[in-house]
Amino acid sequence: MNISFRLFIAAFIAALAVTGTAEAGHGHPLRVMTWNVENLFDTVHDEGFRDEEFLPGSDRRWTSARYLHKLMDIARVMAAVSDEHGLPALIGLCEVENDSVVTRLTQRTPLRLLGYRYVMTHSEDARGIDVALLYQPADFRLLESRSIRVPSREHEYAPTRDILYAKGLVLKGEGVDTLHVFVAHLPSRASGHRADGHRLLAAQTLWEEVKKTHGKLVVVMGDFNAGAKDRVFRNAPLLLTDDADEEGTYCFRGFWQWLDHILISPTVKTKKPAHPFKMPWLMEENKTYGGQMPRRTFRGPTYHRGVSDHLPVVLELDF
After folding, report:
1. Which of 99, 133, 300 is nearest to 221 (CA)?
2. Number of helices and strands (H, E) in the chain?
3. Is the peptide bond prior to 29 cis by the omega test (within 30 degrees of 0)?
4. β-bridge mates for residue 303, sequence order
């Protein structure tokens, strides 16, 4: 990314910070975004985790320059979302390695001008990937946050990502109310039937925690590795917000799927369904199956200069 573009993004986001904060003072609306940013690793080995493929000496040659390029592109996407929809008050991120990468994203890119704060999990996932929640303190006054551990070991599964829970105050009408937020990245589907069982266990853990909020204002977001009709949503005490007119968030062998979702309690209102955010520079031609697909960071071991194999999902909550 050249210097002129960085300066443009910095000036643009500075302007958004002013307008976004001014609008937030009225309490309407609250914009939410979730995104699997596909292997956002730093270049330093975390002892005890299998992150060797994202080190400078690995076959992928994950260098500081490539790491910085990815961070800047993620910030660029968030700026584009703000331009089209307004500044997101809450951003749930999946596949972030540790505090280092989230701190660098929020403090060492143009996003630093927006004043995002964050909370995140510290899971036992073998690769060391976690989930995080970025939030605007003016829109979401954080009261507490914690990690929710999926009882994987007790059911003879390998540890997976923790579920992130955050509770905060939001403006609602002429007063304030408590919003409960969960960010989840359920186990992948790579291992067939056994993976399905693990994913159902994680979903059950999530829904049990959601029920403890007693049906108040609740937002759940993240990568569920499952479509809307999957069994993981069968006992969900919440409503899916997917836009039925949209193809999905992830493209596998030419077929689009909704894997990333935002769910809300019936007490939360929206004017429009949640929809994937697309920009031309996030996409590329699918030369094998036709159509387009998200441009990912790597294709196999080959550096591809993309941002993620998932599209962000955006939803506007009407308080």
Report:
1. 133
2. 4, 19
3. yes
4. 298
Judge whether 165 and 222 are in contact, CB under 8 Å: no
Q: Residue 179, Cα to own-chain centre: how many angstroms?
A: 18
- pTM given for the model: 0.92
Q: H helices within 212-291, ranges in order?
A: none
Q: What's the pLDDT tens digit per position in 174-209? A: 789 999 999 999 999 876 678 899 999 999 999 999
Domain covering 31-311 in this structure, CATH number: 3.60.10.10
Could you identify the residue written with the tokens 């941002």?
307
Residue-range domain boundaries for the chain: 31-311
104 φ, ψ (degrees, to nearest 5): -65, -40
Paired with 165 in beta bridges are 146, 182
> What is the Cα gyration radius of the chain?
19
- Tell me the DSSP string of 34-97: EEEEEEE--SS--TTS--GGGSTTSTT---HHHHHHHHHHHHHHHHHHHHHH---SEEEEEEE-
Residue 196 is encoded by which pair of tokens?
A: 């399905």
